[in-house]
Amino acid sequence: MEMHHTIQNYLTSWRGHTFQNITAGLLVALAMMPGAIAFSLIAGVSPTVGIFSTALMLIGISFLGSRTLMVSAPSSGVSIVAVFITSMYDQQMLIAAMLVMGLFQIIFAFCCVDKAIHKIPVPVVVGFMNALAYLLLTSQLKHIFGHNLSTYLFAVLSLIMIFLIPHITERIPATLIMIVVLSIAAKMFHVDLTDVQDLAHIHFEMPALGLPQVVLTGWMVVELIIFGLMLAIVATIQTSLTARMVDQLTKTASSLNRESFGQGLTNFIISLFGGLAGSALVGQSKYNLKLGATSRLSTLAAGIVMLLFLMLLSPLVGSIPMVVLAIVLTRIAMNAFDRQTLRYIVERRWTEFMIMLITFLLIVIARNLALGVLVGTAVDYSYQRIQKYRKGRDQHGS
């Protein structure tokens, strides 16, 4: 009876206004294109890999995901961990780490990861999000500063358009309009700018299914497990925060355990194709809901549209100026800074602020997201225990 009810709910999650969901999927795909290109460059892989991975994840998660209407793709957190791996080893090691990441996410699902995630203190989550935002922001400065006057001019134009376009229309993403207009302008006037094709070869070929070519020694196996675990923790935290937001907006409940299983299986499959794994995305999920999406069809449509873009328009991706993409990611980074930080300062909640700061500094300085979360959580729980001990001693003394 329970199995029948589960199947019935799954089939119901595909129902909805077909045209409305396909339209939402189309616009979501357009909105995700800049991020798919930019996050792949951060991770040290070709934009074609990033776009293909985004398409594959959208399609996979539309079938396997638990939290309907939530959008998943290569993200800032996963990309920032990925660049650590590619800088130390190569892309094959990155693919291997993402295979391990998928396995860890599947294991998390059976270990009730939802309970573990809810035990992470709020100041630690705030520090984690702020560190991701900082690392993302600083990674883009090299594409904006230290270049010619044309680069600075296009940076200013990009900022102006990002802030003005939403006042004119919110139906079409401001970042997409900005990228299209400024890319055309750069080509028409032969502006001296660094383009995407200057940093990466843009050419789509359907990747073959297979395992990464990695020769593992004893220590490399340990590092591979650590990398995979770091990726899985980062993806799970980002997905948990996004799922919580979608739950609140839709006034429905979802299962992080089932989402972790679906996302882990999808990431594992993507890695077998040599792609870039990902997690849920807050902004794109909110945009999907704002467009009126009501079923899994919207994310499936977004994935199919993204794949068609890659197959038909990949040569045009190479002509996008890097400074324009950098401004897009700078905007994403600024929005990612958690406003709770200011509340800690205004309300003088110094203990929570210090735990947030410890988490933030550990991640930024050590370049280790998992270490920051673990130490920040340990400090928070230690402080809580000390406070309880003092309170108990005072009560006993009185």
Automatic annotation (TrEMBL):
The keyword Transmembrane helix applies. Residues 148-359 form the SLC26A/SulP transporter domain. GO terms for cellular component: membrane. InterPro entries: Membrane-Transporter-like, SLC26A/SulP_dom. It is found in: Membrane. Keywords: Membrane, Transmembrane, Transmembrane helix. It is a multi-pass membrane protein. The chain crosses the membrane at residues 21-42, 48-64, 95-113, 120-137, 149-165, 172-191, 211-235, 264-282, 302-332, 353-375. The keyword tRNA processing does not apply. PANTHER family: SULFATE TRANSPORTER YBAR-RELATED. This is Sulfate permease. It comes from Staphylococcus delphini.
